[in-house]
Design goal:
By secondary structure, this protein is an alpha+beta fold. Among the domains are: about 170 residues, no CATH class; about 120 residues; about 35 residues. Helix content is about 60%, strand content about 10%. The protein is built from 21 helices and nine strands. Strands 1, 2, 3, 4, 7, 8 and 9 form a seven-stranded antiparallel beta sheet that branches. Strands 5-6 form a two-stranded antiparallel sheet. Strand 8 and strand 9 form a beta hairpin. Helix 5 packs across helix 9. The longest helix has about 45 residues. It is extended, with a radius of gyration of 36 Å. The N terminus is likely disordered.
């Protein structure tokens, strides 16, 4: 080969060597620390880092350190599960009582109420409960007055008037909102005059007694006596308010003491839209009050003691877990400061990602769920010991605290399951694909928002699923998952041919774009990350921090860990087999 060509080929190789030296300065710095000089300070720092980034089981296998934090998390998980199941059952009983009470009130006070309004089929088989004539409005109010006056004799439940029915407690309290009259008649000479100010008149509906000492339940006579005029085309809203009292008790399973409630109810005739349809609905809220109720046949003290003891154990273990996590975060921060100081003194590059490895997301998650469970347990104790009133709002707050806390607690246990590589694949893939998924979702959200607004604006008046933005969004999200396809196509009700054909084109386009394109691309992003993680290059890839504190006897340690994991797996399988054998013998 000519000399010129030889010289020409040698020059790039020298450049490559120089570029390689520049690119690998960081790794060579770390190798110099590892190979050239190992001071006592360096060895101690490496040992601290190695121990810090080990899992609880690894520390137990290498250093015989008992995994207290792991045991506390497992015990806490068992206790909070039992606590949540007990609270969930009690909350369901309370909500069922409230809903059944509300349904009973509707059957009692609403004239044409039927069980068809209580079902939740889709699409709905009935329209809203509403009235359309002035006669229906008068009949409904008269019926409610009569039924309420006979509540104690008609109802099957333990419902009574407050204060023994004395005073005004046994009468409905009516409030009428209507527009103030304008000048002239409506649509006189092709114009109308209405005053935008709203008049509100309230009165107790006390029926007058007739000649036969029978009470006359006539709303128009009562309003006339109180100098209140009722102009039907000016009515905006009519409210019938009432108060009752009741108690809740379970005779068969008297787990909890009897509870007394005050029922604040309201029947609303809503005509604010002025469209000829006056929607009628009844709502009631329950508030607990102390009434000195007793249930002598069954003793509930044991159940109460067990519940309080369980809540106390949950608070104790959550408090212990909180303190241990705080200690771990403080130690991590001290080690971080020591590492940064050492890296700066030895001119070693310490990147942002290396620093971020000191942030333990799992510990932060455990701290949050500990706080939530301690707060939820305190609210639960107050509820069960009557220091807080039993209401839907308090139960919902307690349920949110305990429910979110349990979700985070079960997610936090993944940190210890991550000791086994096979079980850790889900969290590793999601963590590595997080930023790519967020970039993809930004684009997908833009397309989704455009389709949502387009469908809501055009199909809203003609399609039951697109009447509101939130129901339209729920419909489109269901379409992405392949749900309710035929119902969505067939629910468009219109005589406009353009709108009808547009609805078909819109649903076909959205389904094709998101089901066949966007959804598959979303899966492809995750699969791409999964393939990277499974590749040998990824497994051998290490950060600068890992290269710094890596153990020279790493291969020996891997063999030791592999054998230890194998022994743990064999012990776990044999334990499960023994349980299965015991069950077979017992059967």
């Amino acid at each position: 080969m000519p000399a010129e060509n030889q010289g020409y080929e040698e020059e790039p190789e020298e450049e490559k060597i120089e570029m390689g030296k520049q690119n690998d300065n960081n790794s060579m710095d770390i190798q110099n620390v590892n190979l050239e000089f190992e001071t006592n300070e360096t060895k101690e720092l490496k040992d601290k880092l190695r121990k810090h980034f080990m899992g609880a089981i690894e520390k137990y296998l290498f250093f015989d350190r008992f995994p207290w934090n792991l045991c506390i998390q497992v015990i806490k998980l068992i206790l909070i599960t039992i606590q949540l199941v007990m609270f969930g059952n009690r909350r369901i009983m309370f909500v069922e009582y409230v809903e059944s009470n509300n349904v009973a009130m509707r059957h009692l006070f609403l004239l044409h109420w039927s069980p068809a309004y209580e079902t939740m089929p889709y699409p709905p088989i009935t329209g809203p409960y509403a009235i359309y004539t002035s006669k229906d409005l008068v009949d409904h109010i008269n019926f409610a007055m009569k039924q309420f006056s006979q509540t104690e004799s008609l109802t099957l439940g333990p419902v009574r008037f407050p204060d023994g029915g004395n005073g005004m407690a046994k009468y409905l309290y009516m409030c009428v909102e209507q527009c103030r009259e304008g000048e002239g008649d409506v649509f006189k000479n092709g114009t109308y005059s209405l005053d935008q100010h709203v008049l509100k008149d309230c009165v107790y509906l006390i029926p007058e007694r007739g000649q036969n000492t029978e009470r006359n339940f006539d709303i128009m006579a009562i309003l006339k006596k109180n100098n209140i005029s009722l102009v039907f085309d000016r009515i905006l809203k009519i409210e019938l308010k009432f108060t009752l009292k009741s108690y809740r008790i379970s005779v068969e399973k008297a787990v909890h003491k009897p509870e007394c409630y005050r029922i604040d109810g309201m029947v609303v005739f809503d005509n604010t839209n002025k469209n000829g349809q006056m929607v009628v609905h009844l709502s009631s809220s329950l508030k607990e009050f102390i009434c000195g109720a007793e249930f002598d046949d069954v003793s509930t003290s044991n159940a109460d003691i067990c519940g309080i003891a369980l809540d106390g154990l949950v608070i104790f273990f959550c408090g212990t877990s909180f303190c241990l996590c705080i200690r771990s975060l403080i130690n991590a921060y001290r080690l971080y400061k020591e590492t940064v100081e050492y890296m700066n003194n030895n001119s070693i590059t310490f990147t942002f990602y290396d620093k971020f490895e000191f942030v333990n997301i799992w510990h932060l998650m455990i701290l949050i769920n500990d706080v939530l469970f301690i707060s939820g347990s305190i609210v639960k104790i107050l509820l069960e010991n009557k220091h807080a009133e039993s209401s839907s709002e308090i139960y919902d707050i307690c349920a949110l605290l305990l429910g979110i806390g349990s979700g985070l607690a079960y997610m936090g246990i993944i940190r210890h399951i991550a000791y086994f590589d096979t079980y850790n694949i889900l969290t590793v893939v999601l963590r590595k694909a997080f930023f790519d998924l967020m970039k993809f979702l930004v684009t997908a959200f833009s397309l989704y928002s455009g389709a949502l607004l387009c469908g809501w604006a055009i199909l809203g008046p003609y399609h039951i699923k697109f009447r509101n933005l939130y129901t339209a969004s729920e419909c489109l999200f269901s379409l992405i998952n392949g749900d309710e396809m035929f119902t969505t196509f067939s629910a468009t009700v219109t005589n406009n041919t353009v709108i009808w054909y547009f609805s078909r084109f819109y649903i076909y386009t959205f389904s094709g774009l998101f089901i066949y394109a966007a959804l598959n691309l979303f899966v492809a992003v995750i699969l791409g990350t999964y393939k990277k993680i499974k590749s040998k290059e990824y497994k051998n890839k290490k950060s600068n921090l890992e290269k710094f504190y890596e153990d020279p006897n790493e291969d020996t340690n891997k063999d030791f860990l592999g054998k230890a994991r194998e022994r743990l797996g064999i012990a776990w399988v044999s334990f499960l087999r023994k349980i299965c054998c015991c069950k077979k013998r017992s059967t």
